[in-house]
Design brief:
heterodimer, A: 113 residues, mainly beta, 7-stranded mixed sheet, 4-stranded antiparallel sheet, globular, B: mainly beta, 5-stranded antiparallel sheet, 0% helix, 62% strand
């Protein structure tokens, strides 16, 4: 089965630093998402991206967050100035069409110290 | 705002037992519903996808049903095995604008199948 690839698998950073999380979507998928899961809590929607623009973003996705697909393949999530509360597992997800299932990557565990 | 609830939060069964996991959602205007499996520290694996117009989907020992009008879905696992031990997540897909849809997740049911 095709896979969504995320790098790095683990990222440790100091508070206030910038981090970039990377995702390689499944080839020919059109819809891209970032979700996150704080330890012990629900998986939460952050942002959806289609046709090179953000479709929707959650309240969590404030000005410190940004997404882009710079080279037509990688899909990135940038956190400009990390906070302690940004520590979570971040998942990239992609799909081909809206009525198809969503494929998730294995996640990046972000720890902000 | 959509809320997804899963009952029970945890379930422990002996190997071979059939079991049912429950999911309920507050807003019936969903596009589809997906069941996922999550192993500790890992990503989410899609198990079954049910479109809003469908009543059930089956894959191997798994059967998922959907009653959109009452806001409920069940995941039935037949003849459970120790390898089925994982957290099972239910998620509903809603329109989020710009030809796109987002998932809202439940907190999951932690299943332990004992040999």
């Amino acid at each position: 089965e095709p896979e969504v690839t995320q790098t790095p698998s683990h990222q440790v950073t100091q508070m206030g630093q910038e981090v970039i999380l990377r995702c390689v979507p499944i080839s020919n998928h059109l819809y891209f998402y970032w979700y996150r899961q704080i330890l012990g809590q629900k998986v939460e929607f952050l942002v959806s991206f289609y046709n090179n623009e953000i479709s929707e973003k959650s309240e969590i996705f404030d000005d410190q967050f940004s997404v882009e697909r710079p080279d037509g393949s990688n899909f990135t999530l940038k956190i400009r100035s990390t906070k302690l509360e940004d520590s979570a597992m971040y998942f990239c997800a992609t799909r081909g069409l809206p009525n198809e299932k969503l494929f998730f990557g294995s996640g990046t565990q972000l720890s902000v110290l | 705002k959509q809320e997804v609830t899963q009952i029970p939060a945890a379930l422990s069964v002996p190997e071979g037992e059939n079991l049912v996991l429950n999911c309920s959602f507050t807003d019936s205007a969903i596009y589809n519903l997906q069941w996922f499996r999550q192993d500790p520290g890992k990503g989410l694996t899609s198990l079954l996808l049910i479109q809003s117009s469908q009543r059930e989907q089956t894959s191997g020992r798994l059967n998922a049903s959907l009653d959109k009008s009452s806001g409920r879905s069940t995941l039935y696992i037949a003849a459970s095995q120790p390898g089925d031990s994982a957290t099972y997540l239910c998620a509903v897909s809603e329109y989020s604008g710009g030809s796109n849809y987002k998932l809202t997740f439940g907190k999951g049911t932690l299943l332990t199948v004992n040999p």
